[in-house]
Design brief:
The protein is an alpha+beta fold and about 550 residues long. The protein has helices spanning about 30-55, 65-75, 80-120, 135-165, 175-180, 180-185, 190-200, 255-265, 300, 345-365, 380-385, 390-395, 400-415, 425-435, 445-460; strands spanning about 10, 20-25, 205, 220, 225-230, 245-250, 270-275, 280-290, 305-310, 315-320, 330-335, 370, 415-420. It has a 6-stranded mixed beta sheet. A 4-stranded antiparallel beta sheet has the order 2-8-7-3. Helix 1 (about 30-55) packs antiparallel against helix 2, helix 1 packs across helix 3 (about 80-120) and helix 10 (about 345-365) crosses helix 13.
Length: about 550
């Protein structure tokens, strides 16, 4: 096993810890929309101001500065809204900090690769595990300039990291940069401005257990009535007592509606968010709440009824069912999806493919699905793959993080567990040991189908290779079974077997079924001979 990296142990992925459902706010009057826009713009301005203050604090942030920011916002809104804004600000700063660390790590990987290749002679060939030298002096020179650029970027990023500076904007950097490319985005300046303002609004409230219907700021009653606690400067817009505004439209959650109703009737915490889809001109309300941590089943229990191994690719899932011994059952299954187009289209494609996969797993009767624990972060660098731009785009387009989170949440609703395995060598060893043996005139096996078998066997705890080495020639039962899947109490491959017929006359078998006896041969070759053959002495000729 020299040269192979150590494989990580398989594990059962923990279940989801939260739920989010969404429904459209219908039949809103123009006055309702004006109030929602005013509240969102006012609280969005407060959130932008708070984010600026948090970024200015940097590493000096603490409980005292957090409390001071909250007191300033409370005078302009309310205590609950101020708490929600400061919490969102803190989470946004922390996310920017994590992205900054990932950016530095990516630069480190690129610098390391460039330094290694520049240190080799021009034209030196590489190996499977390390790239060789550059092909020409001109390429070597361009890459040396590239190294200097990355080192400057790395130094600036490290300086920002040590000083606690992050670069973040409410509304998103992508939408901000779209302002300079309106023609390519097929947007007018007015349309972009409307989308930009809507993304910077703040219309959200955290839930509070013990309060009426689980939320005091944005309250939703069991019959679907939605009311908002207005901030102090907008209290004159209230249409009911206690500074609240009741929307004309009603809400009705079709998905998980019963679970949501049970929570609010018990006054358990439910968080709400109201947002505007500018493309459709529709208002939506999202309800979310936390669940108790789902206890994952032991790995042995997940393996008891077999496994479905799934190989994730850029345009499809390749799945194969295996029994608990690791033997492939039936034919491979392929679940296609298209990741081109808008984000909404890609998300719908992933959900549709996962739904078909989970439905098939339920019909197959398995308890778990095996999937690779993919992370393409170190694989996307330009320095590692060079001119293979299509390959870099391919692995960048696979939504590994979102896919795993969605698969875990959808599988948990149907009583299925997810077993994550190390992705090393699954495609290589699957094609080596399973692609050719399972290919028949009526079954076409691809490399991805074979990788699904390899993933499933690794999730079951079996080696990917089909058979072990044969036993010693001197004693066939000394080394145990030849088949990897055989249990310790099963009959060995070289052990005794019951005869094909229990008696020559064809008597009843132990199972009660009558077996036919041996029939006489009709050929002269197989007929019994009564002649005794005697070996003649060798004749010597002179």
């Amino acid at each position: 096993m020299g040269g192979l990296r150590k494989l990580a142990a398989s594990f059962v992925v923990p279940g989801p810890c939260g739920v989010a459902i969404r429904d459209r706010l219908k039949h809103l009057t123009p006055q309702d929309e004006r109030v929602l826009r005013a509240v969102g713009a006012h609280q969005g301005a407060l959130a932008c101001r708070d984010l600026k203050a948090r970024c200015a604090d940097g590493l000096e942030h603490g409980a005292d500065t957090w409390a001071a920011r909250k007191r300033e916002l409370t005078a302009l809104s309310s205590s609950r809204i101020a708490g929600a804004i400061t919490k969102v600000t803190h989470d946004q700063w922390a996310l920017a900090r994590r992205c900054q660390a990932a950016y530095i790590q990516n630069l480190d990987a690129g610098i390391k690769t460039l330094r290694h290749r520049l240190s080799l002679p021009v034209g030196e060939k590489g190996t499977k595990r390390a790239a060789g030298g550059y092909r020409s002096k001109s390429e070597w020179f361009r890459k040396s300039r590239r190294l200097a650029t990355l080192e400057d970027r790395h130094a600036a990023a490290v300086a920002d990291w040590r000083a606690g500076r992050v670069r973040v904007v409410r509304g998103g950097k992508r939408l901000l940069n779209t302002r300079h490319h309106l023609t390519e985005a097929r947007l007018t300046e007015g349309e972009w401005r409307e989308r930009w303002e809507a993304e910077r609004w703040f219309l959200a409230a955290d839930g509070e257990s013990g309060k009426r219907f689980g939320n005091e700021t944005i309250r939703v009653t069991p019959d679907g009535e939605v009311s908002i606690k207005l901030p102090v400067p907008l209290a004159h817009l209230a249409n009911t007592k206690h500074g609240r505004y009741v929307l004309t439209g009603r809400i009705a959650f079709a998905h998980r509606g019963a679970e949501w109703a049970d929570r609010i009737e018990a006054n358990r915490a439910v968080a709400y968010r109201i947002h505007l889809d500018t493309g459709r001109g529709r208002w939506y309300l999202t309800a979310s709440w936390q669940r108790p941590a789902v206890q994952t089943i032991p790995l042995g229990t997940a393996r008891a009824r077999g496994m479905i191994g799934v190989d994730t690719n850029a345009d499809h899932f390749a799945a194969y069912r295996l029994d608990r011994h690791g033997n492939p059952v039936g034919d491979p299954h392929r679940f296609d999806y298209d990741l081109s187009g808008t984000t909404t289209h890609r998300d719908a494609q992933i959900r549709h493919a996962l739904t078909r996969l989970i439905n098939w797993a339920r019909r197959a009767g398995v308890a778990a699905i095996g999937i690779e624990d993919l992370d393409f972060t170190p694989e996307k660098t330009r320095e590692k793959h060079g001119r293979h731009k299509r390959f870099r785009q391919l692995i960048s387009g696979i939504p590994t993080g979102k896919l795993k989170a969605r698969l875990v949440s959808m599988a948990a609703e149907h009583g299925l567990s997810i077993v994550a395995v190390d992705p090393a060598y699954t495609s290589l060893w699957g094609a080596q040991h399973w692609q050719k043996p399972l290919t028949t005139p009526h079954r076409t096996m691809s490399r991805h189908d074979a990788a699904g078998i390899a993933i499933g066997r690794r999730a079951l705890g079996h080696p990917i290779r089909r058979r072990t080495a044969p036993p010693p020639h001197d004693r066939s039962d000394r080394a145990g079974h030849r088949i990897v899947q055989a249990g310790p109490g099963d009959r060995g491959c070289e052990g005794t077997r019951p005869p094909a017929t229990d008696r020559l006359s064809g008597g009843p078998s132990p199972s009660g079924k009558r077996k036919r006896g041996t029939s006489a041969s009709n050929t002269a070759r197989d007929a019994p001979s009564t002649q005794q053959w005697v070996q003649d002495s060798l004749m010597c000729t002179g």
